[in-house]
Amino acid sequence: MIQVSFFDNVDDSLLKFAVIIAKADGKWVYCKHKERDTYENPGGHREEGETILATAKRELMEETGALEFLIKPVCAYSVAGKTGVNEAGEESFGMLYYAEIMKFSGQLDSEMEKIVLFDEIPENQTYPLIHPKLIEEAKRRNIFDENITGESLFKDRKSFLYGTGNPAKLEAMQRRLNPLGIDIIGLKDVQIELPDIIEDGITPLENARKKALAYYEVLHIPVFSCDSGLYIDNIPEEEQPGVHVRTIGGKYLSDDEMIEYYTGLAKKYGDLTAKYRNAICFVMDEETVYEAMEESMASETFIITSKQHSACKKGFPLDSISIDRKTGKYYYDLDESELDQVAVEDGFLEFFKKILVK
Asked: What DSSP string describes 28-62?
């Protein structure tokens, strides 16, 4: 007997497989292996050193020839029992994804004979005791509509693209928006060539607007982008970072270079009192754009110190030299909910609450 179970989260190290439920032009995308007369959802084993998302994208491209697509996680799952590929029958874990394919390359993995687009889910499936259950779970979670199309992937539900490639920022935003029932993906979940955007605005809102509009023009799905400016008390205007937090003197700084530069400022002037001003632009469609740079989105004032914390999280380098004024703790010593509050202030939640009821 085969038992399929579903989980919102499991330890990443347990995830050995990725399976992708895919659609194109409203049709179900299935693969046919050269040695089988059955049809199957694309998917496969995770390779050493791969993230599970990279596994899903690779398998989708290899087995369907997908060239341009959007992909989003559904849930983790496990299978226990003898399955044909797992004769020992021990419980194995995987990640289930949903993808909307916009363009095919025509090239398939050498093991695949062809792909077939079905109006209805085929009955003749390679894994009839597993894959249909994965689809039923995705339906239960309202992941897709029966007549979904590429441009409607995120319409009429609380699912949006966050225009960031920074995984730390994406994870913080996901956790903060989760209580509102909002599901978001990031730029790394999009297998489409995206424009290089020069962030030359003089305010955070100008940069957020520029990014959101550019991504919407390519993808035509609801997308939002955020931007921040760092403002430090009592330093000369020419050294004020503003929107150029990471670009100093025309050079884009690495995480280590950022820490070196800002600890240098703290050594030069003493511990610095600073504040982030944050902005957001949300493009729902060509005629509907929401944006804000409210005081409620700004951070509380904090201290930038010359003494670095022993930890450093990629994507948030300045947190290792930032101290919360209320508690006296380094940001890295705050618990996750407190740190998420710093990364995504309450004003962002209020922003989404307002647009979701419009």
From this structure: EEEEEETT-SSBB-SEEEPPTT--HHHHHHHHHHH
Contact assessment for residue 272 and residue 235, using Cβ atoms and an 8 Å cutoff: yes
Confidence (pLDDT) at 158: 67
Ranges of residues in the chain with a pLDDT under 50 are: 146-156
The parent domain of residue 286 ranges over 159-356
What type of residue sits at position 154? Answer: F
Same-domain check for residues 203 and 130: no
Encoding tokens for residue 171? 């994870």
Q: In the prediction, which pLDDT does 154 show?
A: 44
**Opening angle at CA 351, ends 346 and 355, nearest 5:** 150
8: its two tokens: 């919102």
| pTM for this model (two decimals) | 0.72
Count of domains observed in the chain: 2
Nearest by Cα to 67 from 22, 97, 104: 104
pLDDT score recorded for residue 86 = 53
pLDDT in tens, 176-195: 998 888 888 899 888 888 88
Residues 42 and 170 in one domain: no
Mark whether 193 and 113 lie in a shared domain: no
pLDDT for 150 equals 41
Instruction: Output the domain CATH number for residue 248.
Output: 3.90.950.10
Same domain, 251 and 305: yes
| Helix or strand run (H / E) with residue 225 | strand 223-232
**Of 124, 152, 180, which residue constitutes the final position of a domain?**
152
31 close to 115: Cβ distance less than 8 angstroms: yes
> H/E element holding 169?
helix 167-177
214 and 346 together in one domain: yes
pLDDT at position 244: 93
